[in-house]
Write a structure and sequence with these properties.
Lambda Exonuclease, Chain A; binds iron/sulfur cluster; about 20% strand; 7 helices
């Protein structure tokens, strides 16, 4: 179970089902490739301590991010894949943390995101309740035996200014064990319900549609498969 799966469900139940029940994976959008390539450049930078120098947009995005991130250091955990058992024992959580800095009194979890527009950046209030941030904070607290974790989400705008400058925006918050445990209990319960749905395999179009999400992130890739009318929205109750 991943935070992405929880976010898909929260965004639109049908969108979750198209992807996770029907396993329909649309071709990645160009923006997603740009994000992957930027992450790869940053990973190489942290592993080799060498600045990227190619004359391309990905390099410019990585260099803009590097200005906002700690210098390479052996203490940093870079692109660390983690797994841990849900307290329900019904499934395993999985995540990939871009960067964790355990130095200092409070570990800092960094996440880097490329975006066309800062309107997609989370606010500080959204960050502290975000499923991905919650999951990564739980992992960092457990791994480094910490009572608090700093979250540092770096947004890198992929559209340069007229002068060719790449802008970044950092959203940061400190969360305590109490804050995180409460939110984690919610997403862990939801994770267990989704495991049940994986077994029950309800027909996608019987799940609730969220029309407010159809236009998000450049448009839902399942729009052509998803007729939406008032009567088609239903409650989940039958399947849980
Ligand atoms: S088209 Fe809209 S309602 Fe249908 S799956 Fe996508 S976001 Fe949900």
């Amino acid at each position: 179970m991943s935070a992405t799966q929880i976010s898909f469900w929260n965004e639109c139940q049908r969108k979750w089902a198209f992807r996770y029940l029907e396993k329909i994976y649309p071709a990645p959008k160009p923006g997603a490739k740009l994000g992957d390539d930027t992450h790869q450049k940053l990973k190489t930078y942290f592993s080799t301590n060498t600045l990227p120098i190619a004359p391309d947009l990905v390099t410019d995005l990585a260099l803009a991010a590097i200005e906002e991130l700690p210098a390479p250091n052996r203490a940093l955990s870079v692109e660390e894949k983690f797994y841990f058992l849900s307290p329900t024992r019904a499934f395993v959580w999985v995540g990939l943390a871009d960067l964790i800095d355990p130095r200092g009194s409070v570990p800092r979890v960094h996440d880097h995101k490329t975006t066309k527009d800062f309107k997609w950046a989370k606010t500080k209030e959204e960050l502290v309740t975000d499923p991905q941030a919650t999951l990564y904070a739980v992992y960092a607290m457990s791994r480094f035996r910490a009572e608090q974790v700093d979250l540092s989400w770096l947004y890198i705008r992929t559209v340069p200014t007229k002068k060719g400058v790449i802008k970044t925006r950092k959203v940061e918050a400190r969360v305590s064990k109490d804050d995180v445990c409460e939110k984690f209990a919610e997403i862990d319960d939801l994770g267990a319900e989704l495991v049940k749905l994986h077994r029950a395999k309800p027909a996608t179009l019987t799940l609730k549609a969220n029309r407010a999400a159809c236009g998000s992130y450049g448009g839902c890739p399942y729009l052509s498969k998803c007729p939406v009318t008032e009567d088609e929205t239903s409650d989940l109750g039958d399947f849980l």
